[in-house]
Amino acid sequence: MAIETLKSEITGTVWKILYEEGAVIEAEAELMILESMKMEIPVEVEHQGRIQKILVAEGDPVEEDQDLALIEVD
Amino acid sequence: MKAAVLREQNKPMEIEEVQISKPGPREVLVRPIAAGVCHSDLHFLDGSYPYMLPTILGHESAGVVEQVGSDVTYVKKGDHVITCLSAFCGHCNKCLTGHLSLCQSPEVSRDAEEAPRLSSGGETVHQFLNLSSFAELMLIHEHALVKIREDMPMDRAALIGCSTTTGVGAVFHTAGVEPGSIVAVIGCGGVGLAAINGAAIAGASMVIAVDMIDSKLELAKAVGATHTINASSGNAVGEVIELTKGGCDYTFEAIGLKATAEQAFQMLASGGTATVIGMIPVGTMVELHGVDFLMEKKIQGSNMGSNRFRIDMPRFIDFYLGGKLHLDQMISKHIKLQDVNSALEALKTGEEARHVIMFDQ
After folding, report:
1. Which chain A residues are within 8 Å of B277, Cβ to Cβ?
2. CATH code: domain of residue B278
3. What residues of chain B lie within 8 A of the CB of A13, using their CB?
4. Tens of pLDDT along B313-324?
5. The complex's ipTM?
6. What count of CB pairs under 8 Å joins A to B?
């Protein structure tokens, strides 16, 4: 089992987190939505896995390349 | 209501029945009369920029107020308005320091916990840039519109909603072009043409239009370019340097490419400023020659022309009606909502400036 780190591609704000810690998430599913310059940006996981830890909360500002979540993948 | 819904990137939008919520206390229901089809919409359709799907694209529109929320006093039913994606809160750090176009307050959109403004059969349809103008109705925050004079033709007004404000604003506000300046604009689409027109209004002594399509360069001359360069030669930078005898005071990149952003910087004279207006794809890096900074060359971005749109847009209308701002030539074609996909295809070729959707009344 490996841990993948989900990172932000942009600077913005966490608008909505769509899953809870411990949940299983499918490959390419959106874990959260960021808001940046009026845009709603989906943050997708690359591989199916279990969400080990969500590192941000709704309303948090995020920077480009910031860690957003840790996903346990097989 | 009918709307053009994007469900998958790089696929055509579908005209669907979409449900729209009722105005909240600070929201306004607008019936679009005209909506421009902008290259920025294409960036989201083709995946250059990600967006939550499904969504209704479109962000450049003019319309009539249909209904207002309980706390709205700025407009009333029947008022003519232009919408703007630079919705502002009016009280954050950015707004209070005069940078309304950089407002990041979430209060202009609905909370994730509230019922969405747009939905389809119970599924949320994500509002595009707080607007979604490819639709028969728009439900927006009251700070996402400006009231305008009723003698302004609405198809021209729609252009002011994005491309004009973005291009002219970049010249007036972001760059602050001074009379007598030498200016070059790379890219003669809607935004680039607006920047060219803006530079002429600002009193630039030389306004050089750079594009690869001759018809676009002819259009650039009609809106204020003093010189044109066809970049197909592959040496646009060299030609600009030779024409200006050393480079430009101001350059504007209005396409959204790494190469042209770098060229905009390379075209500068010492002390010059390059302004990147175009939307460079996410993940793209721009490379500059470090030594050029010793010559005090500068590069900066511009978001929606660094606008204060409630002041700018009425002024742009006055410029148009006074003959200074050329909008008539920017409109290639009037179309219907169901033709929106073909309008976006036309943008890919770069042959035409702007298709404008005219809604049935």
Report:
1. none
2. 3.40.50.720
3. 104, 106
4. 999 999 999 999
5. 0.82
6. 41
